[in-house]
From TrEMBL:
The keyword Oxidoreductase applies. Belongs to the glutathione peroxidase family. Pfam families: GSHPx (PF00255). This is Glutathione peroxidase. Gene3D superfamilies: Glutaredoxin (3.40.30.10). Keywords: Oxidoreductase, Peroxidase. It comes from Arthrobacter hankyongi. Transmembrane segments: none annotated. InterPro entries: Glutathione_peroxidase, GPX_AS, Thioredoxin-like_sf. One of its GO terms (molecular function) is peroxidase activity.
Amino acid sequence: MLDGAEASFGDFKGKTVLVVNVASKCGLTPQYGDLEALQRKYQDQAFTVLGVPCNQFKGQEPGSSEQIQEFCSVTYGVTFPLTAKADVNGAARHPLYTALTSFRTDELQDEITWNFEKFLVSGEGEVLARFSPKTAPDSPEVIAAIESALN
């Protein structure tokens, strides 16, 4: 985790998780606010957002763990967990993203296309949905997918 604590995806067993590769210096960075709103709205229903900072897209997440944590909490009031920085593409791709990207859509294939690509994962670890970076976290399709997973 960003705070240095060890964690595995198994720690989220039983929770619906929206996994998002995030960046602090991206045109889509304001999505942090909508992600935090989802966290607050659904956190009492076995749901969490999991942010995965990534610096693979034009160096838009250059900060240290401390800088990222401070930016997220001060600027957007982020309370959801953030992992350590990870690669989401390429030879050093984190194993979580190897598993997540096996879920493809017509638009989204093997590679992560940009910051703020979203994956909805069930409490049993099944990828339920994948959303493009430009799909807002509070869009009707994301909300419907989350609510369907929680019911």
